[in-house]
Each structure stands twice: as structure tokens, then as C-alpha cells.
Amino acid sequence: MPETVLVCVAWPYANTPLHAGQMAGAYLPADIFARYHRMKGNRVLMVSGSDAHGTPITVRAEAEGTTPEAVYQKNHQSFVDTFERFGVSFDLFTSTATANHAEVAQGIFQKLLAAGYIYPATQTLLFDPKVGRFLPDRYVEGICPKCGYDGARGDQCDNCGSTLDALELLSPRSRLSDATPEPRPSEHFFLKLSAFNERLTEWVAPQDHWRAAVRNFTLGLLREGLHDRAITRDLEWGIPVPVEGFEGKRLYVWFEAVIGYLSASIEWSKTHGQPEAWRDFWLDPSARTYYFQGKDNVPFHTTIWPAMLMGSATPDETLALPYDVPANQYVTMSGAKASSSRNWAVWMPDYLDRHESDPLRYMLSAVMPETSDSDFTWSEYVRRNNDELVATWGNLVHRVLTFTRRNFDAQVPPQPASLSESSQRLLDRIDGAFEDEGKHIEAVNLRAALQVAMSVAQDANRYLDERAPWTAIKTDRDHAAESLWTVINVISGIATLMQPFMPFTSPRAWALAGNTGDLQAVGWQRSVIAGGTALPEPLPLFQKFDDSVAAEEEARLGH
Ligand SMILES: [Zn+2]
Asked: Residue 86 in contact with residue 352, Cβ under 8 Å?
């Protein structure tokens, strides 16, 4: 019975290009997960989009002397381009600037308002007396009251991950002038998060399949107690508040952006001629919803969005709560946190101009920060490329197929009448690996899943070393034929196991083993290669890097 799987991926702010740390945090794991489920024959919808609103965009527009619209458009195009070149297979990557999103977001607002979970109140906000404007979140900077980091923003501290209120900042300063902002009253709407504390705790506590860090962090927030939060802002860029008298204000970006998962599902349904299809993902209790993101986004997906879903439920429409929120920790770059201002990042457009996608997909999967922060270095990238992709996997494919073509008339040797114990063991190993790797991917343990595929490649190399068809061919042609027939079938299986991780080179490896057609469509199983199948001329799957590549790339950081 095919399962219904909704893959929701964090919405990137469209204010800078994407960097490799964001790929490892959310987009790559989501893509691996979605590709696997599609191969399993499950019904998958993977959605996200550019976060076009909010102060990150307006702050950037003011810095560049342009409009928020232009900033969002430029970066949205860059995101779409990066996802295509890096092989991130969204069913829909849209943006929060669509009319559909505004309509869905305002609809949720109205439902929460009608249910009494949104209320108006006077809020004290920081006001810049020099420029005569209120200063929403990122327009204020100061010292984090939780960790003491100088450079915390009015909405969040990037150092300790705490969400903040601008009034909590110590020594606040305006980003629009050199003025010290002063508190003034302003009328806004609030989301009554305090009303959901108990229901959320009852929901989160039994989620044994969540990552321990995600569940414990969330239960910690709930023990402290959620506070009601303002959901409107004094801004001109964003989604209008659908209430008379609030014309000059906009929905706060965190409130409307999380609704994007729902609005994107609806948009996908409309544009695919099945306007009701989104209901299968959101209203069917057997559907599972996964939210991929970095750890800084956890509170929005384990408390705020679930509270909004609970609060907007009506007797005939109860939207699904998250099934899992497999948030990743951070990937640092050569020991330091990625930073735009210091240009300390591997920018995806730059990377993709210089290198192939799969080596980076492999590297980031191998160090994916599932339980703790991990570090990316270019020397490790070169080492893994050369030792693991080139020497272990690529060379297995290349030497077996080159040798077979030369000695067996460019065809797969005939299937042996009976197999020796070592050949049978290797075939059992590859077939068992599908279940092992699948279980790891379903539990979103992607490092372990990749390790399953790679360890079969290591076993296949060991098998070849033991049976040495290169020498056996001179004395016992049948012995060599059995080894090659076996390993070509194992290569067909490994290529399939690698497909979710490396969707560019895996179909090539699979075709080199004699397969024809679409690997993604074959399903989560090894396609059997019959004796006599024609073998195409093999070209190397990966390119070996000189050590100077690491030094050159490392030198780009911070300049
Ligand atoms: Zn902090």
C-alpha cells in the first residue's frame, strides 16, 4: 500500500544566495528523503519557496538602494537555479509573494481570530526618533540577554539560537540611523500561544521517533511556558492584515511564512489540474508530514505552527500536525559558522560554476549534522572525493566494466549455472542492503543510510581482490566470468542505493552496468542484469582532485 508523504522544507529568506551549510541543514536531506520515497512507489509532495517578506529583505533592499521586490526576485531566481543544478527535486518551489499564499495566510488568520486565538493589544515597540519610524525586529541590533553575544538581532540571536523580543536586547541600536531607539506604544494583533502550552506538551511528549535534541529542546520551551506573540508589524512590505483599521500594518513574516507549506500544497494542486489533491496530504490521518530545517527554526515547527494548526481546526477541517521535525544542527566551514558579511561560506552558485554536484552532495551527506554540529573543510572534501568516490566506488565500476568489455566482447558474461558461496554472499549482501538503507532513510538517519551503500562497494572490492578475475581469466575463464557477472549485478544495485544521494552519477553508473530506462522509475530494488547484455563504453564517474584544489578553495573563504 503506497504511503502519502508530505516533505516540507524550510523557506529561505530571499536576501542572499544559498550556501552549502543550508544545503546540509535542510535541502539535501529533504531531497534524499523524497527521492527514496518516490522510488519506493509512495506518493510524495515536496514543497517550499522563497520567503519574500520580512525585514531581512527590506534591510537588504535599503542597503542596496533598491526595492524589496527586486531583492526577492533576484534571489528567488538564484534559488531555483541552485536547486536545479544541485538536483534538489522540489515538486513546487514557489514564494510567499503569490496571491494564493496571501489568500491562504489571511484565511488562517481569520480562522484563528474567529476562534479567539488572535486578539488586538497595545504593544510597546522601539521607535527611531531620528527617522520617525518603528523598528521591526531586524532593524534593531544589540547584546543578547541570554548569551551576551553582541550582534543579536531584534528577533533572534544567531549565536545561541534564542528567539528574542527587540525590547530584551541590551544596548539596542537602530540600523537606520545612529539613534538609540526609544519605546513607544503601537496597536497590534497577538497569537495566544499561552493557550496551547498544555495541548502541545501532551502532543510532543510521546513523540519517541523525534530526534532527542528536537524533542528535548521543545519540551524545554514548553516547560518555560509559551508567551503570546505579536503577529503584525509596522511595515509596508508584506501581506496586509485583513482587518479594517490596520491598513498600514502587515502580517509578521514568521506567522505567514509557516503557512507557506499549506499554501504551496494548494498551489501545486491547482497548477496540476487536481485542485483537491492537497487534501490527501493535509487531511488524511494516514498521511505523514515531515519538516526539514536547521535547528534555529525548530520553535516555529514544533510549537508555533502546530499551535496555529490546532487553533484553526474546524469540525470539518483539521489539518495534520507534523509527523516528524528532523532538524539538523549546523555545519561550520573550516571551524567557523557561515557568515555573509565575512564572506565565510561555500556559496552554491560559485561552487556549481566550478565543480560537479554529486561530490558535494556526497560530502555533505557523509558529515550531515544529524546529532551534533559538524565541520566542512575542503581538504576533507578532496580526501573523500579521491578515497571514497574515485577509489572505492568509481574505480569499482570502471575497472570491472573496462575489463569485462575487453575480455567478453563488450557483453555481460553468461549467468553461472550455480554460484560459489562468496558470490552468493555478495548478492545477498546487496539485496539486504535495500532494506537496511531504506530503514535508515525512513528514520531520517541519512549518514547511516549512505554508509550502507558505501560498505557494499567496499565488500565488492574485497570480493574482487580475493577472486582476482584479472589473473583467473588466463587459467579459468568460467571463474572470472562468475566474478564479473556477480559484480556487474552488484554495481546495478549499488547505483540504485546511491541514487537518492547522488542523482547525477548514479544513473550513469546504472547505465554502464547494462541497464536502460529511468533509474528513478525502476523502484527501490536491484534491477537484474542478464548474461549477454551489451555494455557501453565506460567513462569515469568522478574526477580525481589534486591537493591544490583544497588550498585554492580554502583561500576563497573570508575574501
Ligand atoms: Zn544569544
From this structure: yes
